[in-house]
Amino acid sequence: MKLQRTTLILLLLALGLGSVVYFLESQGLTQRQESQENKQQIFTFTADDVRSLNINQNNLNITIERSTSPNPPKWILKSPVSSPASDASVSFLMNLLVQGKVERVINAESNQLKEFGLDQPMATIAINLRNQQNYQLILGKSDFNDRFLYAQTKNSNQPDGKINVLLVSKDFSNAVNRQLSEWQQTGNTPANNQIQDSTPLPNSTPLPVPTFTPSP
């Protein structure tokens, strides 16, 4: 009887402890979800609002414009070459710009840009919208935990002379650090990486074929 009572007490304690752990984990998960939902978005425009992108990184200046044709490709690489752009590469970057959130905002002095790698940025992304509005995201170096990137938007300067430094997803680094070939559509891209003129060539008249008469 004593053994059964002891076993029952231990079982009740285990159930009680399990309930407490479950409650705390549930509360923590809810708080993390609410915190993520309450985080500020980097930008408020949508993907359909974007007319063109300009990515300047590692001495490579990429300009991409939305195609005006209803047929693929959706995006056209305009500079440094003219060719259909990789929809996967553009969509990955576009998703970060449209849905990306700010992990934290650091109120810094304007002379501290070097500390965040913003004096010589890893990359600068210029976004032009259909309504003629322009946005810019400047990407600096990784934070001390190597989990996020320091960043700065076009209108980050404050009236008191300070600047807002943002912590954004490190996925931005993967999105912009690409070779030129990774921005180009593969498969049906012309060999010379140019969009060829589709104007048909004028009809040509066939040259007469010479005839020979055998000697008698």
Overview of this structure, please?
The protein is extended and about 80 Å long. It has a 9-stranded antiparallel sheet with strand order 4-3-2-1-6-7-8-9-5. It has 4 helices and 9 strands; from the N terminus they run αββββαβββββαα. With 216 residues, it is of the alpha+beta class. The protein has a domain at 47-177.
Topology, please?
Blueprint: H1 2-38, E1 50-57, E2 60-66, E3 75-79, E4 83-84, H2 87-99, E5 104-108, E6 123-129, E7 134-142, E8 148-153, E9 163-169, H3 171-176, H4 180-183
Antiparallel strand pairs: 1-2, 1-6, 2-3, 3-4, 5-9, 6-7, 7-8, 8-9
SSE run? HEEEEHEEEEEHH
Radius of gyration: 29 Å
DSSP strand content: 25-35%
What fraction, in percent, of the residue positions are helical? Answer: 25-40%
Described by the principal axes of the CA atoms, the overall outline is extended
Number of strands: 9
- Indicate the structural class: alpha+beta
Number of helices: 4
Span of the ends, CA to CA: 134 Å
Task: Please summarize the sheet with the most strands.
Answer: 9 strands, antiparallel
